[in-house]
Amino acid sequence: MITELGHFALVLALGVAIIQTVLPLLGAHRGDVRLMALAGPAASVQFVLVLVAFAALTIAFVTSDFSLRLVVLNSHTAKPMLYKISGVWGNHEGSLLLWVLILALFGACAGWFGANLPMRLRARVIAVQGSIGVAFLVFMLLTSNPFLRLEFPPMNGDDLNPLLQDPGLAFHPPFLYLGYVGLSMAFSFAVAALIEGRVDAAWARWVRPWTLAAWVFLTLGIALGSWWAYYELGWGGFWFWDPVENASLMPWLFAAALVHSAIVVEKRESLKAWTILLAILAFGFSLIGTFIVRSGVITSVHAFANDPERGVYILLILGIFMGGALVLFAMRAGAMESKGVFALVSRESALVANNILLAVSSLVVFVGTIWPLLAEILFDRTLSVGEPFFNAAFTPFMVALAVILPVGSAMPWKRGQMRPRLLPLRGAAMLAVACGALVFAMQTGRSGLGPIGAALAIWVVAGALTDLWQRTGRGDVAGRLGRMMRLPRADWGKTTAHIGLGITVFAVAAMNAWVTEDIRVVPVGGSYPLGSYEVTLVGVAEVPGPNYLATVAELRVTRGGDEVAVLFPEKRFYPVQGMPTTEAGIDQGLTRDLYLVLGDAQDGGGYAVRSYIKPFAGWIWLGAIVMSLGGTLSLTDRRYRVAAGARRAVPAE
Amino acid sequence: MIRWLVIVLALAGPAAAVEPGEILADPALEARARALSQGLRCLVCRNENIDDSDAELARDLRLLVRERLVEGDTDGQAMNYIVARYGEYVLLRPDAGGVNLILWLAGPVLLLAGIGMALPLLRHRREEDELSVEDRARLAKIMADET
Lengths: 653, 147
What we know:
The structure holds 2 protein chains of 2 kinds.
Chain A lengths: L1 H29 L2 H5 L1 H24 L6 H6 L6 H6 L5 H22 L5 H25 L23 H30 L4 H32 L10 H26 L3 H24 L12 H25 L14 H33 L7 H24 L7 H5 L3 H17 L6 H22 L6 H9 L3 H26 L1 E7 L4 E4 L2 E12 L4 E11 L2 E6 L2 E5 L4 E5 L1 E4 L3 E10 L5 E9 L1 H19 L2 H5 L1 H6 L4
Antiparallel strand pairs in A: 1-10, 2-3, 3-4, 4-5, 4-6, 6-7, 8-9, 9-10
Helix pairs in contact in A: 1-3, 1-7, 3-6, 6-7, 6-8, 7-8, 7-12, 8-9, 8-10, 8-11, 9-10, 9-20, 10-11, 10-13, 11-12, 13-14, 14-17, 16-17, 17-19, 19-20
Chain B lengths: L26 H12 L17 H15 L4 H12 L13 H19 L14 H14 L1
Helix pairs in contact in B: 1-2, 2-3
């Protein structure tokens, strides 16, 4: 009964979404206030209906209702409650429902918090948002209905893929989707602005917080996913250049570009057309990501739903929305005349450089991701594009980005002179070079990755701090410190986010350059050296889990006789899915992670054990957290909370 | 057994599913094998290199790489040997020749295109916007006095 209610709510949501799309657009076109006023309430109703559907599906999973096809395929009575709930979105249909739920939530938010938007713009934004909802609701109801019943319910389900039975599944997809789908707001604002034929500083002030929020969520979502991969996949990699990871990286890079270019529109009324294009492309790449994940045309470790029919449908959605938006863009972009001119040496051109580097690096990832597909279709060649390609083709752009970042953020708007702006950065530059040289000297004979990464990171972090300090003007230190505390939160956000980037750059370089690895067979009771540590295999035991059997090793790590950690790496076997997984034993430290993995029992006795010392591993995700903290700080800037200027800037129409 | 000899490797890039028994006694050869493995795909897996994979086929490939190196092949010869048998699908880093040039040149070409698009945005300063030499000297004096 509840299932049917959920199904019915989903169909109703489609009906409401159609109303939400058509009537406000018509109203905005005709200047009919009553029709435009429908947008907000329609968006709220659509959200509530999708929420009812989502709740119905969750209830079915929690109560293990095996008359539902989706529950049978992805659940089992023995599965812990956390995974029964997160299992709702651990599959194609359910995750699509989550996608649509978040989409409807953003549409409703535009209604709830958009009171200071001009009525016409708000109606159009919500209508465009509604149209995306229509497309995905139709897609879901026609090809991926989560509420399909089975005529003969089985006694129990097939269980969830064991790799997904992890707390990571509870948080990674929701954050990721908040990011992906959050970019739909930027898209809706861009299309609404194109229909209006006008973009101004106020528009950028509305669009930027949504993009920033989406970027923050995407940053956290990607970081969570990469951390999950790090501890779950059993060899401590954190990024695999897998098509599905690339699918999240591409919109992230575009969103980062958009966050920066929207500043130029807001402060200088320049780069308008470019910003609109970025907004369209950012969401476009988020749709391409959806296509890559759900169509199965590109092989990836995230085996989600390999149904070509679905792929065709998503391609159709992508074609309609991107095609439509880009045609509209081509027709109207000319009207977006930029006001502010700027010279070569200026904040604007630095941000243009940032945008070019981010956009091109994202496109490189895109080309690398679809190249196997293109090569097969066009040239009949079956080939792979993997990590070595991306490392070679993508990294230079990130290095260039890190090099120009402190210089660019020190530049004044409109025009500036290089020398006076570069002088304060001398300290940062010297520190960076000195640290790079020191690292180089300490690690003789290893790759250049470590020193370069360290120098770049110091340059970015010290540059960001110098920039913040320069903002406090002149005078004594106490006065400057006082002024520093009173700087707008946007300035603090910028500094924090850039420091976060520096931390991640350093950690990625450090972990790749200085990892220590040891692979060996260890008899029970035996010990071996690992770097400056001594590891002892105390014992191995068979331990039954709730829905799996585990082989758990006890490994004692000591250093100079003192106990550092006792770790329990596991090998698990999930009988329902017939699949093994590894759970690494990780001791997280400030400057290194000890990462121990239990291998198979050996014929001659003992166990294979893989051990790693991963320097600065935790800093990768620390950097991501600091970045999103910076974004959040910027989001709470006074100008977004008050938005008084925005109200004045655009008279109500 | 000599193969139990343990080597602590510090390589650029992670590696893992390598079994203890596979590791070569000669650290230099083993390091080369690892470097080659980073560029070889586990054919039955999805986007994993043979070092990271637990699959049987990945193990066979790892052993094959080591066998070729022990026989005295150079890195290039060993890779060619494998590509000749398993096809270019096995390479994670596609050759930078032929149509793959499109792939490899995409980055630089797009970068140039981006710069080309951006250049018209930079309007050159007009003469009247420029401060005269005297004005600049005055400005410098004012700024210096302020401190």
